[in-house]
Specification:
Elements lengths: L6 E3 L6 E3 L4 E5 L5 E4 L7 E5 L3 H9 L2 H6 L5 H14 L2
Antiparallel strand pairs: 1-2, 3-4, 3-5
């Protein structure tokens, strides 16, 4: 029997896609928001395509704020945006 591929929903565009093809953003216990390159950090995760377009949609629709049930400072979005550039293919 074929193994099921875990799917996750992009918080930017809302598309369901394989977990391994997405970028995980995590909220730690200290309420720190980080990009989780390994996918193994402890904390609440939200998934996003590795694209500037999806990131901008997530910021506009407050997708991260809904996922993490907290308000997010603009400087956190700036830091994530800079880090996202490194991950874009």
């Amino acid at each position: 029997m074929a193994k099921k591929t875990p799917l996750r929903k992009c918080i930017g565009c809302g598309e369901m896609i394989a977990k391994k093809d997405m970028l995980r953003i995590v909220k730690t216990k200290e309420n720190e928001i980080l990009i989780d390159a390994t996918g193994k950090l402890n904390g609440r995760g939200a998934y996003l395509h590795c694209s500037k377009n999806c990131f901008e949609q997530a910021v506009k629709s407050k997708g991260l704020e809904r996922s993490f049930k907290m308000s997010i400072e603009p400087n956190v979005y700036e830091k994530l945006s800079e880090e996202l550039i490194d991950f874009e293919q």
